[in-house]
Amino acid sequence: RTPNPDVMCNKEIKFKLLYNKALEMGFDYLATGHYAQIKGDKLIRSKDEFKDQTYFIYNIKKEQLEHILFPIGGYKKTQIKKLAKKFDLPNQKRKESMKTLFLKCLQIL
After folding, report:
1. Distance between CA atoms of 54 and 39, rounded to whole angstroms?
2. CB contact at 8 A, 102 and 2
3. In Å, how far are 1, 50, 58, 67, 82 from 104, measured between CA atoms?
4. Which stretches of 1-109 are DSSP H helices?
5. How many Cβ atoms from other residues are within 10 Å of residue 35's Cβ?
6. Which backbone phi and psi does 45 adopt, to 5 degrees?
7. CA dihedral 64, 68, 72, 76 (to 10 degrees)
8. Mapping DSSP to helix (H, G, I), strand (E, B) and coil, where does residue 10 land?
9. pLDDT tens digits, 40-66
């Protein structure tokens, strides 16, 4: 019965304001770092069952899915970390950011 701020943040900020702004600016897609996948016109769980985030984005509208990409959803977190190291990406040693995102969304909402 207690609302989940991550669900609200995704619904109101990422997949409403940000999504609409991206389309308004002429972009074809909005890509996010969520661990989720899209098959056809359905949102499905990511390959990484422990990092899966479909629970937090379950309320994405079906018609939005054709304009959304989840590029890491087909990987496990360990694979993503290895790729970040292989390509020497600046975030290769970054710790989990959930608390930071949570606080930012609370401020916005």
Report:
1. 13
2. no
3. 22, 24, 20, 25, 28
4. 5-9, 19-24, 77-86, 98-108
5. 25
6. -65, 155
7. 10
8. helix
9. 999 999 999 999 999 999 999 999 999
Handedness of CA 34, 76, 46, 67 (dihedral sign): positive
Q: Of 35, 19, 24, 21, which is closest to residue 68 (Cα–Cα)?
A: 19
List the structure tokens of 54: 């479909």
Considering just the CA atoms, what is the radius of gyration of the chain in Å?
14
Q: Which residues contact 103 (CB under 8 A, 6 or more apart)?
A: none
Contact 35, 44 (CB under 8 A): no
> Which residues partner with 69 through β-bridges?
31
- Tens of pLDDT along 79-102? 999 999 999 998 878 777 655 555
pTM (two decimals): 0.82
